[in-house]
Write a structure and sequence with these properties.
globular; about 15% strand; single chain; alpha/beta; Rossmann fold
Length: about 375
C-alpha cells in the first residue's frame, strides 16, 4: 500500500475571481471581488411548472387576447397562416370570445377573480413547494407559468434567474406528450432562455402517463367515486383531449400514450376490458379527429341501455374549461338526452395528496445530480 500523501494546499484565489456561488451564503458582493462587481445570489435550482393557460377574465377583450395567442400557435393550428389568420381574425375572433366567455363565466371562481385552472395550479404549486422545501430546504425554488396568458413563461424564467437559479427543471403538467401541449410549452421555455445573458442549465420533464404513482392516483380517485355511489356506474369513460387524426399519422405519440394509461388504469382496478373505455373530446374544425368522440360515444352508450355512467379526464392535471364545462355540462347533457339516468364526473387529480406524491416523485427523479 502506498503511503498517504498530504493533500495539496488550494491555490490562492486570483484577484477579481468569483468563488463558487453555493459557497457564498445569501446575496451580496462576492469575496475577493472588485468593489464594483454586481451582487450575486446564492446558486439554486428552479422548478417551473407549466400549464396551458387561462384568460385574465371572461369579458370579450380578455377572451379575444387569450384565444388569439392560443389559436395563432402553429403547434396548435398548423394550417398556413396565409389561409388561417384571415379566418381567425375576421371570423372566429369576432364570435368565439362571446361564447367562450359565457362558458368561462359559468365556471369562474368569482371569489378569487380567476379561472379554476389558475386556482388549482396555485394550490398544486404551493403543495409541491412545501414538499420540496422539506426535502431540499432553500436550495430549490418552485414556481408556475402558463403557456398562454399570465403568468407568462418569459416572466417566470426571468424571476427564477433573478432568484439565483443556475439550473431550471421545466415541468409541463401534461401526463401525455403531444405537439400541441408539451412541445409548445417547451418551445416557449427555450425561447425564454434565449433572452438570458447568463443562461441557466435546463432540463425538461418527460411525459409521465405510465408512472406507477400517477396510475395509482387515478385508481384511487375512481375508487372514491365508486365507493360514494349508491348505485355503481356501469361503465367508466376515460375522456382525453382530442387532436386531428392526421397528427397521429404524422408521428405524434399522444394517442398511444392515452390508450396505455387507460389499460394500466383498468388493470390496476382489476376490471373487464369493456368497463373502461377510451374516448376523445374537444373536436374543433372540419377535419377528422381521434375517435371515438366523447360527446357521441356517451349518447351511443345510453342508446345501448347504459343508465349509469362515470367519466374521468386523465389527460388533464387540473380541472378547467374542458372538464368543468364541456364534460360536466355538454357531455353530461348528451348522455342524459339519449336516455342515460345517472352521470358521474370524476374530478381531475388537482391538488389531491396522491397526485402531489406522484408529481413530486417525477420531479425528484428529474433532479438527480442537481441537488444534495
Amino acid at each position: 500500500m502506498l503511503d498517504a500523501q498530504p493533500a495539496p494546499k488550494p491555490a490562492p484565489a486570483q484577484a477579481g475571481a468569483c468563488p463558487v456561488h453555493k459557497d457564498t451564503p445569501g446575496s451580496g458582493r462576492l469575496a475577493h471581488a472588485p468593489a464594483d462587481h454586481p451582487a450575486v445570489t446564492r446558486a439554486r435550482t428552479g422548478i417551473l411548472l407549466a400549464n396551458l393557460g387561462t384568460p385574465d377574465n371572461y369579458d370579450y377583450w380578455s377572451m379575444r387576447r387569450y384565444l388569439n395567442e392560443f389559436l395563432s400557435d402553429r403547434r396548435v393550428i398548423d394550417y398556413s397562416p396565409f389561409l388561417w389568420q384571415p379566418l381567425l381574425q375576421l371570423v372566429i375572433l369576432t364570435k368565439r370570445p362571446f361564447t367562450s366567455g359565457a362558458n368561462y363565466k359559468s365556471i369562474w371562481n368569482h371569489d378569487k377573480g380567476e379561472s379554476p385552472l389558475m386556482t388549482i395550479t396555485k394550490d398544486q404549486t404551493a403543495r409541491i413547494a412545501e414538499r420540496m422545501t422539506e426535502r431540499f430546504g432553500g436550495e430549490v425554488v418552485v414556481d408556475f407559468c402558463m403557456r398562454y396568458g399570465n403568468p407568462s413563461t418569459d416572466s417566470k424564467v426571468r424571476a427564477l434567474v433573478e432568484a439565483g437559479c443556475e439550473r431550471i427543471l421545466f415541468f409541463p403538467l401534461y401526463p401525455h406528450y403531444a405537439g400541441a401541449t408539451s412541445a409548445t410549452a417547451c418551445d416557449q421555455f427555450f425561447r425564454a432562455l434565449m433572452k438570458e445573458k447568463w443562461q441557466p442549465a435546463a432540463r425538461t420533464v418527460a411525459p409521465y402517463f405510465d408512472h406507477p404513482l400517477y396510475i395509482e392516483a387515478l385508481a384511487q380517485s375512481v375508487q372514491k367515486a365508486w365507493d360514494a355511489a349508491a348505485e355503481k356506474p356501469e361503465v367508466l369513460v376515460a375522456s382525453y383531449h382530442g387532436m386531428p387524426k392526421r397528427y397521429l399519422m404524422e408521428g405524434d405519440p399522444y394517442h398511444c400514450q392515452c390508450a396505455k394509461t387507460t389499460r394500466l388504469l383498468r388493470e390496476r382496478l382489476g376490471w373487464e376490458k369493456d368497463k373502461v373505455q377510451t374516448t376523445f373530446q374537444s373536436v374543433f374544425g372540419s377535419e377528422e379527429w381521434l375517435r371515438p368522440y366523447t360527446v357521441d360515444h356517451v349518447a351511443e352508450l345510453a342508446k345501448q341501455g347504459v343508465k349509469r355512467l362515470a367519466v374521468i379526464a386523465p389527460a388533464f392535471s387540473a380541472d378547467c374549461i374542458e372538464t368543468l364545462e364541456e364534460i360536466n355540462e355538454e357531455i353530461r347533457e348528451s348522455f342524459e338526452e339519449a336516455g342515460g339516468e345517472q352521470f358521474t364526473y370524476i374530478p381531475c387529480l388537482n391538488d389531491d395528496a396522491a397526485h402531489v406524491d406522484a408529481l413530486c416523485a417525477v420531479i425528484e427523479d428529474n433532479l438527480a445530480g442537481w441537488t444534495r
